[in-house]
Design brief:
mainly beta, Ubiquitin-like (UB roll), 27 strands
Length: 602
């Protein structure tokens, strides 16, 4: 839709219209139309009620522009009669200008004004006629931009073409987009040598001639950062910009996003002025403000699996100018408690690669097992393209465990690789997205472990919205282990099923193979899946229906356990909180089980 910003008020637009005698051109300057817009704005008087300006004969697009450009459409029943009559008299001119902005120059207007006891009504019937179409289109790009394939491809989709209806708004927008694209591509001296439109009303055609001079493409100068926060060589790792390379606004945007997401800075500002017009270079000055070094956190909650729990944390975002960081967390509940610490630092490319040393203590006691463990590990994380994160690790783990009637200890040196990708994560209600995590790990007695095994763990989740209120959520997890003897595997390496994030309707980790006494001892393999559909019933509340199924097992003769239920969702400021009532279909002694959980959908 054309509007006051993209046709009538465009100061560099000149309309040359020829009537039946070409030697008598009608020239309508931008200044006269600017005055029209100014007068229109002066008539926009707030009112409590609008009268009826009935328009017929136009399609929705044309009618919308007519109403937007007609001050009469904003007049109220309280407007003075003299003002309404004056706006009604001027309506022909307003309508004509609104239709011409969209390429219609032959409008026939019939109108009538009726006065009632309390208000007025204007009936306006309009025949738009045949539009003016582009006949000859000549757009010449001179300078380095003509050889810039990316630039030429960007402007080709918006380029006016012969045969199209001549829309003044689209013409003006194309001019603006052409100049904007040139600037973002590094053609800072770009300008229009000429830009004219000649309209032949008799032939219902328009000829467009545009000559655009891009000039020389600028190149990056030196990238300079605020000193005293991080070392310059580390900061340079946040960008691919090199002095002397062609300018790109995307590289500036990428640099801003990388620094802003690094956690080192509370504010980031990037300046590219003043330009060096003689040397055709763009200086890049990055102004940084250090973020608070030390951050403390505390929180608590309740889930069915873990019961009441609390946590405290400490993070030092910047230990030194090399960008080293430290983080520690203490978590406690009646089921599981752990203390973890991690020291990490960026590698050559801090956007994509980090090295970490982690250690931790954990105690866990469930209905089926109990273990105390100590772990120390070394991790190297690297972004593999825009979507995937790969982490290679080596862990040393010592564990005392009780599973069923077995009491034992285990010492493992575990080597593994983890791949993860996620899209669409949101703190509140995710509408579209997915998450996939694959973990391949193993241990060997040849490397000092008490046993040898190779294990694959896969977790996936998918969310898809149908309209504004309904979603489908799918989840699955798979675990496979190649090993000598199950009894040699510690509890933390075995698989169990059941619980809030597994098969609802069954207690946490109570599903799996059993020993001779009926104790669940876990399995070498595991599979479970879930389908859930939820629907918003209020702004922050939804109801859900779900079915879960799965189990842990040793042989591939699998007995799946299934739970079905209904749930309530509250999308709180700290994330979704779920209350589920699940019925276990394979346990005749239990009617339903309540599950409470929290955390993001992905």
């Amino acid at each position: 839709m054309a509007n006051c910003h993209n046709y009538p008020c465009n100061p560099d637009f000149t309309l040359r219209a020829m009537k039946s005698h070409p030697e008598q051109p009608l020239v309508r300057s931008a200044s006269s139309i600017l005055c029209l817009c100014t007068a229109w704005l002066l008539f926009l008087v707030p009112s409590t009620g609008l009268a009826d300006m009935a328009i017929s004969g136009l399609d929705a697009r044309l009618e919308t522009n007519v109403r937007a450009m007609s001050p009469l459409s904003t007049a109220s029943c309280d407007s003075a009669p003299w003002r309404v009559e004056r706006l009604f008299r001027n309506a022909d001119k307003d309508i004509t200008n609104a239709l011409r902005a969209l390429g219609y120059y032959e409008a026939v207007i019939n109108k009538s004004l009726h006065w009632g006891d309390d208000c007025w009504r204007a009936d306006i019937r309009i025949q738009a006629g045949e539009p003016v179409r582009l006949r000859n289109v000549k757009i010449e790009i001179d300078g380095d931009a003509a050889l810039d394939t990316a630039f030429m491809n960007r402007i080709s989709t918006a380029r006016p073409a012969s045969g199209e209806v001549f829309d003044h708004g689209r013409y003006s927008n194309f001019k603006s987009a052409l100049l904007s694209s040139a600037m973002s591509s590094g053609f800072f001296d770009a300008k229009f040598d000429s830009s004219t439109v000649t309209i032949d009303r008799d032939a219902r055609s328009a000829d467009l001639i545009m000559e655009f001079q891009s000039g020389e493409k600028y190149r990056f100068g030196e990238v300079r950062f605020t000193e005293g926060i991080l070392r310059d060589n580390l900061l340079q790792g946040y960008t691919d910009i090199k002095a002397g390379e062609p300018y790109s606004s995307k590289m500036i945007s990428d640099l801003y996003e990388a620094l802003n997401g690094s956690s080192y800075f509370s504010s980031v500002s990037i300046k590219t002025e003043p330009l060096d017009t003689a040397g055709k270079t763009v200086p890049v000055t990055v102004e940084l403000t250090s973020a608070k070094h030390r951050v403390y956190s505390a929180g608590g909650g309740f889930t069915t699996d873990l019961g009441p729990h609390g946590r405290i944390g400490y993070t030092n975002r910047r230990i030194n100018d090399k960008g080293h960081q430290f983080e520690s967390k203490l978590f406690g509940s009646s089921v599981s408690s752990e203390l973890n610490a991690a020291y990490r630092w960026p590698m050559r490319n801090p956007r994509r690669e980090w090295f970490s040393i982690v250690t931790g203590l954990q105690h866990e006691k469930t209905e089926t097992s109990e273990h105390d463990s100590f772990k120390v590990g070394f991790l190297r994380s690297k972004s593999m393209g825009p979507a995937w994160m790969r982490t290679r690790y080596i862990d040393y783990a010592y564990e005392d465990f009780i599973v069923g009637n077995q009491i034992s200890t285990s010492q493992l040196v575990i080597l593994g690789t983890n791949w993860e990708t996620a899209e669409g994560r949101a703190l509140s209600r995710a509408t579209h997205g997915h998450r996939l995590n694959l973990d391949l790990r193993g241990a060997s007695d040849a490397l000092g472990s008490d046993t040898s095994f190779l294990q694959l763990r896969v977790k996936a989740k998918w969310v898809h919205a149908f309209g504004d209120r309904t979603r489908l959520l799918a989840r699955t997890s798979l675990g496979l282990t190649a090993k000598d003897e199950l009894s040699e595997l510690p509890a933390s390496v075995r698989f169990f099923a059941g619980g809030d994030s597994s098969v609802r309707g069954y207690e946490y980790e109570t599903l799996g193979p059993v020993d001779a006494d009926g104790n669940v001892i876990g399995g070498s393999h595991q599979i479970d899946g879930s389908l859930e559909i939820d629907r918003l019933i209020r702004d922050k509340w939804a109801i859900a229906l779900f079915v879960d199924s799965g189990n842990a097992f040793n042989t591939f003769d699998i007995d799946l356990y299934t739970g079905v239920g209904i749930g309530l969702r509250w999308y709180s400021p700290v994330g979704p909180i779920r209350l589920d009532f699940a019925h276990p279909l394979d346990d005749p002694d239990q009617n339903f089980r309540i599950h409470i959980s929290l955390g993001p959908d992905l």
